[in-house]
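PROTOCOL LOG
Step 1. Enter all chains and additional molecules of the complex.
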Amino acid sequence: MQKKPSFNTNMSRRHMLGLMGATAAVSMLPWDPLSAQTATGVLRVRLGADIGNLDPAKIFLIENQTVAGHIYNGLVKYDQKTNNIVSDLAASWEVSPDATVYTFKLKPGVSFHKGFGPLTSDDVKFSYDRVTDPTGGSAYRGQLASIKSIETPDPLTVRITLTAPTAGFLHKLTAFNQGWIVSRKAVTEIGDKYSMQPIGTGPFVFDKWTPGNEARVIANKAYFDGSPSVNEVIFKVIRDETAAAIAVENREIDIFFALQQPDMIARMRKAKGVVVFERPANHTINLVLNTTIKPLDDVRVRRAMTHAINRKALIDGYFKGTKNEASTVLTPSFVEYSDDVVKYPYDPAKAKALLKEAGLASGFKFVITSVGLNPFDKIPVPIAEDLKDVGIDASIQILERAAYQQARSKGEIQSCITGLVGPPDPDSPLVSLFSTKSFPPGLNTSKYDKVDDLLAKAATSTDPDARKAAYLEILKRTASDQPLIPLYQDRLFLAHTERVQGLIQNSLFTMQSFGVSLKG
Amino acid sequence: MLGHVGRTLLRLFVTGLGIASVAFFLMRAIPGDPASFMLGDYATKESITALRAKLGLDEPVWRQYTLFLSHAATGNFGTSVVTGQPALQEVMASIPSSAVLALSGLFIAILIGLPLGIVCAVRNGTWVDVSVMLGALAGISFPVFWMGLAAILLFSYWIPIFPALGSSNSKDILTQIYHLILPALVLGVSIAAYIARLTRSAMLEVLSQDYIRVARAMGVPERRIIFKLALRNALVPILAVIGVTFAWSFGNAILIEAVFSRPGLGSMLLKAILARDYQLVQAGVLILAFMVVLINASLDLTYTLIDPRLKAS
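Step 2. Run joint prediction.
Step 3. Record the structure below.
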C-alpha cells in the first residue's frame, strides 16, 4: 500500500499518453463523424426546448405541437400554404343550413400506429369527449364547449350537433390541439403514460424520446396519404440559437425550427447553402392594459399611450425589421384580417395633449409586467422610455414564467405583455383576448367587455359576408377602445440546408416533415 | 468501521429528510401553479380545478407533505405532472449523461491541474509559476458558458474539427466520445484552474515544512521528495476539493449542458422547476443530495487511506 502512492509520475504520464492516443485516434479515423449521421432519409430538426406532453387534450408549446403534428391527424386540416380548411381524416363533410349539425364521412382503411386497429367514428367521438369531460382537465374544453352531442351512426360517420349555430366550428376540429384524433384503445390501454407514448394515424410513428436531448419519429409506411419520403425525423433539442446556427452551418442539423433572434436570422441568410423561409405568424404581441384600474379606464389615456410608444423604432431597432407593424390583433394570415381601422401613429405631442385632456398632465405611475423570456424581458425597456418621454412614470417588473402567469391570472396588475400562438381561427385571438368569458382564468386581462355582442354575432351568423362584417366591426371597435396596444405582428422564420426539398412553412408556428425529401 | 457506516447512514437519513422538506416547501412557496402552467393559455376554470384535484393540489399542504414523505420513504416519488412518467425514472434517466460529463471533466481537470500545480510549487516565483497562475486566474474568472461558446466558435466553426452539439444518440461509442470531447474539455479546464491553484498552495505549504528540509539535507532525491513526501501530504485538501467539484459539476454542469445541447440532471431540474413539476423537482433534488452525501462519505474513507493519521480521529 505505502509503496504505491496514488499519484505517481509514471501513472499520470501513462494517462496523458492514453488520452493523447485517443485524441489522435479520433482525428485519424477513416470516416468523417460529422457526416456519419447524415445517412439519407434521416431528417434532423432543431427544437428550441424539450418536448414533454403529446396528449392532444393537454398539449401546448410549439415544440410539443410540432412533434404531435407528425403523429396525429384531425378530421380536417389547414392547408399549410393557404390556411384554407381541407380534408384530412374526413373524406367529406356536410354542414346543416343552420350550422348546428356537422356530419363527417371518414376515409376508409385508416389505421392507428403500432397495431391499435382501424380508425372508427368511435375514436373520433372518444377524442372529443375526453376534451369536453369536466373531470378530464383538458386545456381545450372551452374550444369544444358548443358541442351538444356526438353520434356515430356507423363506423365511418360522425354527426356532431351543436348547442347553437356556429359557422366557424370547423376551425375547432382542424388538426391542431383538441382537433387531433386519438385511439380509444390506445389511450385506455396506455393510461397515464400516454402523454409520452402517443398513438395516432399520422405520417410518422412516435419512436423514442430521450429527455432533454431528442425525440425520434419514424415513417409510417402505411400512411393513408402515401409513405413519407424521409425514413426518420430526429428532433434535436438545441436551446441556444448560436449553437443551432453553427450546427446548421456544420450540417449537423437540416432544419432550424423557431429561428427568432435577429442576429441569427441575418447570419443564416448569409450562410452558404442555407435557405431562410419567413411568413407572417398568426399572432401579435400586445401590451395589455387593465381597463378596470384608474387611470387606464379612460380611453384617452390608453390612446395616449399608443401614440407615445414608438413601435416602428422597436421593430426596426430591436428586431432589426424582422417583425411587422400591427394595428389589430389579427395578422394577414387570417382571412378576416383587415387594416381598415383607426390607427395611432407615434406622436408624443398628441400623447401629451390627450393626457392633459384626461387631467393627467403630470403623468401617473405605470408598471409594465412582463415575463423573463427573450424578447419579452427586453422590449419593455424602450417602451418604458417612450412612456417616460410623455410624462408617464413607467417602471418594469419582470417575472419568471409561472410567477408571471399567476400574477396575470390574478388580474390585479396594470399591464402585461401577451401574445397568443394559435391556429388561423379568428376566434382564437379575438375570443381569448376580448370576450368576458376569457377572464378569469384566461387572457382577457384588460377585462374588456364591449364586443361580446359582436363575437356572438360572428359566431352564429351563417352568412359568410355577415360574419366577415362582424369580425371587421370587432377589429374597428377594439382599435378604437384600445384595451390593448398591439406592439407588432410576429413573423416566423425557419432555416434549412439545401439538402431539404419540398418543405412548406406554415403559419401555425409548427413544422411538418411530411412532403419533405432529402437530396444527396 | 460499523459505527462509521451507521453514522454515515444516519447522516444520510437526516440530510435526506431535511433536503426533502426544503425542496417540498420551497417549491410550494414560490408563486405559480402547476395546473395552470400545464394547461396553457386556453385553460378554463373547470379544467384547472379538475387538474388540481387530479394532482392532489387541492389537499392542504400538510397533507400533501405527509403523503409525499410516506411515499418517498417507499421509493415512490410520484409521476411528473408534465410527462406522466414516474419521476424517479426520469431522474435516473438523466444521470448517466451527467455522470459521464462530470467524470470526464474531472479526469481532464486532474490531468491538467495537478501537474501544473506541482510545477508551479516547485518553480515557485519563476516565470513558469506566474504565467500558469495567470492562466488559472483567467480559467476561474471566465464563466464556463462563455468558455463553452468560445470553444464552439473556435473548434466547431473557425477550425471545424469538433461538432457543435455535445451529445449524440449514436450507438457508436467513438461518435459518442467524439461529441463529448469539447464539453468535457471546457468543464475540465474550468475545474483544472481551481485544482492547479489549490495544488500549488497545498504543495508550497508542505514543501516549507521542516521534514522536507531535513529530507533535502539528508540527500533524498528531489523527485522522491516532491511526489512521495510532499504530494501525498498535500493530497487531502486537494481530494476534498475534487469531491466537492464532482458533486458540483453534477448539478451545475447545466450551463455546459445548455451551451452544448446535452441532456442531464441540471437541465432536467431547471425544466422541472420552471414547469412547477413538484414531483420531478423533489425526486431530482433528493437524488442529487443523496449523491453528494455518498461522494463525500466515500471521500472520507479515502482520506484515511492517504493519510493514516486521520484514522485515529
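Step 4. Note key features.
Chain A touches chain B through 77 residues (CB under 8 Å).
Confidence is low (pLDDT under 50) at residues 1-39 of chain A.
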